[in-house]
Prior knowledge:
By secondary structure, this protein is mainly alpha-helical. The chain has helices at 11-15, 55-75, 88-114, 119-128, 132-144, 148-157, 163-183, 193-199, 201-215, and strands at residues 18-21, 27-29, 48-50. Zinc ion is lined by residues 21, 23-24, 26, 39, 41-42, 44.
Amino acid sequence: MNITGIRNQSWAGLLNVFYICLNCDLVEAQGLPLGGYKCRNCGHPSGVRMFYSVIIPNLIDAIQDFYFLHDRSEVQGDAVRLSLETNPHIVIPLLFCTLEEVALEDFLHALMRKQALPLPARIKLLKEHRTGRQRRLKLFRRLTCRSWDDALAEVHEASQIDFPKTFAFYREVNHARNRFLHAGAQWAIKPNHPQGCIDHIWPLLKLFVGLHNRFVCVQHRNENM
Ligand SMILES: [Zn+2]
């Protein structure tokens, strides 16, 4: 999905289209479920809510804002001055990495909640596994008995999207982000990274939906279906 040509419509409105069944936790992409909803997995008409927390669409819209900030500076000359803090080349990868971190934490919370871990225990485990790497390699394995890479391959099988490729790109950008934040290495963020981040928003959203449906959703079918 190429969204960079879309300027006057919210990218979040186009990409954040996932709803979760309040009965069985199945997540699916769909338009606004007005006029009733019947889950195709459990058959329950209990309704849905947006799957992603409000931070995710806010981050997507911030990426859009920064993407077009560069355009505005070209059109208006010096009207918009690009500092390090407002340079889309730097900011878009930072926002993209934050988006992954929020989606990962929300996913782990949902997984632990499904496994009946009370909130204090969930918070404790997340504190014990502070970095994304610890959360993916240790906590995720502990909760699912799968390696992160095996899980990516598993959800990839059920999808047209190459999730391992998207996650390899995220890892590359995250490494560059860390070099920038901890060593001031601005050059670590490559020229292709901002566009790549935008291109990988949709696959990243789909990846966490796939992980959720595989490991959180109760995969039972209503006998009446
Ligand atoms: Zn359902």
